[in-house]
């Protein structure tokens, strides 16, 4: 029987700072101590992003804490990590980023049903300050409507 997905980390700030246009599941190249540290949930995706370099996609600024029981072969916390995508996907993402001015932001890091580490990578457009205010106002309005509906039921 297959296991369900198990979430490791989520980048909540990305949904606040960006309009998410598309989400792509990617693999990620990790060392053994990085996987052990991920199993303990010691990762931060907050300021990380992906970029195309020499025909390959890399994840930058992703902090995976060094494994506590690691030895001299422990990993570097902020090293650039290669993302595993098909060549066609890399080409399409590169064109979207170059032409439309979009950015690649990680949304979620998780273990799939086979125990492999996967990354949900979003193709996103940055929000301006007024967009952020507008989305916060609409959330507040929805919350207020929900409260009044609950009070009417009682």
UniProtKB/TrEMBL annotation:
Subcellular location: Cytoplasm
Listed InterPro entries: SmpB, SsrA-bd_prot, SsrA-bd_prot_CS
MF term (GO), any: RNA binding
GO terms (BP aspect): trans-translation; trans-translation-dependent protein tagging
Keywords on record: Cytoplasm, RNA-binding
SUPFAM superfamilies for the chain: Small protein B (SmpB)
Primary location: cytoplasm
Family, per entry: Belongs to the SmpB family.
Protein name: SsrA-binding protein
Organism of origin: Sulfobacillus benefaciens
């Amino acid at each position: 029987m297959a296991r369900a997905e198990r979430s490791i980390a989520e980048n909540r700030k990305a949904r606040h700072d960006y309009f998410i246009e598309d989400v792509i599941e990617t693999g990620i190249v990790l060392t053994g101590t990085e996987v052990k540290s991920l199993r303990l949930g010691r990762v931060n995706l907050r300021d990380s992003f992906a970029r195309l370099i020499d025909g390959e996609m890399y994840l930058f600024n992703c902090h995976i804490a060094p494994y506590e029981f690691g030895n001299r072969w422990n990993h570097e916390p902020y090293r650039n990590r290669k993302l595993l995508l098909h060549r066609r996907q890399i080409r399409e993402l590169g064109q979207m980023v170059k032409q439309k001015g979009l950015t690649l932001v990680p949304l979620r890091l998780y273990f799939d049903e086979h125990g492999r580490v996967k990354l949900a990578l979003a193709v996103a457009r940055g929000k301006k300050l007024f967009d952020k205010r507008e989305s916060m106002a609409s959330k507040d309005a929805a919350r207020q409507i929900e409260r009044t509906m609950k009070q009417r039921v009682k």
